[in-house]
Amino acid sequence: MLLIAFSFAAVLGKLAYVMIAESSELGARAATQWMRDVPTRAVRGAILDRNGETLAYTETRYDIYIRPNAALDKPAAARLISEVLGTDYAATLEKISGRASEITVARGASKEQLLKLLSGGTGGIYYGESNLRRYTYGDFLTQVLGFTGYDGDGQTGLEAYYDKYLSGTDGAVLTSADLVGRETAEGTVYIPSVPGMTLTTTLDAGVQRIVEGAIDAAVAAFSPKAAACLVMDYTTGEIVALAEYPSFDLNSVPRDDVEKLFSYSKSSSVSTVYEPGSTFKILTAAAALDCGAAETTDRYYCAGSRTVDGTRIRCWKAKGHGSVSFAEGVEQSCNCVFMDSALAMGTERFYDYLEAFGLRGKTGVDITGETSGIFISESAVKSVDLARIGFGQAVAVTPIGMLAAAASVVNGGELVTPHLLSSVYDPTTGTEIKGEFSSRGRTVSAETSETMRGLLERVVVNGSGRSAYVPGYRIAGKTGTAQKYADGGIAQGKYISSFLGFSLEEEAPYAVLFLVDEPSGWLYYGSQVAAPYVGDIFESVFAYLGVEPEFTGEEAETVGEKFELADYTGKSLREAKAELAALGIYVETDGEGGTVKGQFPLAGAVIDRRNAVLLVT
């Protein structure tokens, strides 16, 4: 009796478990045996710029299926399909006459084609929704927007980073059918998909067009290996524009060329590092002033080089700058001033500032593939290394990291988080979520920041950044010309030319970093390769935003009247520099000879005082 009672209880327990605990799963498994399902992809959310302009969107397409057992007149069905879709009648008839319960006859059909097929009266034709991702401007913000895979999932850029918001939830079309695939009386059930959310970015399509045009102009002029430009609001970290060359059309992704696809789809501005050169001097100067290792009135002597740990380190000006103040050293970009400043701080204190500037880690920018800067281990740094780091050698940083660090120097000392997300809108619930990106701490004091704004503005008004000057507006900045390294040594003739500029106008607090990697020819100084384009960008952006100029009377002295540049070839370097100085022209020299062998711009070019002139000896 006990054995019978135990067995009966066990059977009852199992029955209860199956009926209650497993009912949902077993019901679903049973449904799959008599329900034919065709998935419907959710419409992927759109990506917009800050003004609501659509950058990426989804076109609904339809995948067409036929169930041969439900198509009573197969020749008529084949004829209808071939007429609507443009397929071969004989091949279509043979295809739908097979023994498979369901056959795919087309993918990506239009709504008009679908309606013609469904109204044809042949029966047996079913469909599923599919989505085609489209990008409004094609080769535009390629690395930022990214692209999706064949399954509709984000692969790179914002498409990948915010895929969970953009993707939505798929639906299905369920049709009741018997064992041989014939539709039963229960008919069809449609489970709607849930659309993805709309992503509003901090990008401005208008500013992006300006930047893309500047990149195109630089590529046409210098045929570089690569070029990039970032525009960021330095008070908030909002990325307003980001353009890179080379790139590709997002509506025609080169999936058959894996090497090109991999190289061009990741953003070099966040995923690669470069030696920043003189733009790094912004950070060295700010750190030295902030900790008291230097004062703007301190004087230094530059004879063209410094010898540190027995190694002679040259200034970019081979004959030296002579006696200069710290402020003049910033304006003239004297390497010796920055070597002395770094050595005065010492390794531990300088590295503390590098940590504060966020360069030894990632910025947290919301693009896939970000990497961090590369620095010599603090315990291994020698004096000669520290001296080189002071003027931007022996370090490697990401462009986005350099931009964010330098932004803190002019925004009052706040290390902002660069970002692209403004908000996410859910069309199903009608709710909107704002992007939140907190400050990463302070780098320098507000007083140091104010001093640096003045020093960097002098670089644009009087120094190597004059080509970026726009009359009627306050602009600060710093040029950079860095040699590249390969196989453990300097790669001869290969440079990265850059300019990092800041608009000091309250209506447009933008920082612009412009990089040209390996410009062709003998022109490679940042003052001539990068700075002019930053000036063009600022001028266009001010006009686009409606920021009015304020003239103080100094503009005429700064810019001067346009004139025709004389021919200085064959003259002594000293004589040519004296004549150009009398005209108020900033001069760069290349070579250590005493006679001018070439010049840029060429003789006869019409210029004003914003132009820098290169004399080759």
What does this structure look like?
With 617 residues, this protein is of the alpha+beta class. Helix content is 35%, strand content 25%. The chain has 22 helices and 24 strands. Strands 2, 3, 4, 5, 8, 15 and 16 form a seven-stranded mixed β-sheet that branches. The chain has a five-stranded antiparallel β-sheet with strand order 10-9-19-18-17, sandwiched between helices. A three-stranded antiparallel β-sheet has the order 1-6-7. Strand 9 and strand 10 (239-245) form a beta hairpin. Helix 3 packs across helix 4 (89-96).
Strand content: 15-25%
Instruction: Please outline the major beta sheet.
Output: 7 strands, mixed
Describe the global form. elongated
Structural class: alpha+beta
What gap, in angstroms, lies between the N and C termini? Answer: 113 Å
Q: Which regions have little confidence, pLDDT < 50, spanning 5+ residues?
A: none
Number of strands: 24
Mean pLDDT: 88
Radius of gyration: 32 Å
Number of helices: 22
Helix content: 25-40%
Secondary-structure topology with pairs:
Elements: H1 2-21, H2 23-34, E1 35-40, E2 47-48, E3 54-66, H3 74-85, H4 89-96, E4 103-109, H5 111-118, E5 125-135, H6 142-145, H7 157-161, H8 163-166, E6 171-177, E7 183-191, E8 198-201, H9 205-222, E9 226-233, E10 239-245, H10 258-265, H11 268-271, H12 281-291, E11 299-302, E12 305-308, E13 311-314, E14 322-325, H13 326-332, H14 335-345, H15 347-356, H16 383-390, H17 399-410, E15 421-426, E16 431-434, H18 446-462, E17 475-486, E18 489-503, E19 510-517, H19 526-529, H20 531-545, H21 555-559, E20 563-564, H22 573-582, E21 586-590, E22 598-600, E23 606-607, E24 612-616
Parallel strand pairs: 2-8, 21-24
Antiparallel strand pairs: 1-6, 2-3, 3-4, 3-5, 6-7, 8-15, 9-10, 9-19, 11-14, 12-13, 15-16, 17-18, 18-19, 20-23, 22-24
Helix pairs in contact: 3-4, 9-20, 12-14, 12-18, 13-18, 14-16
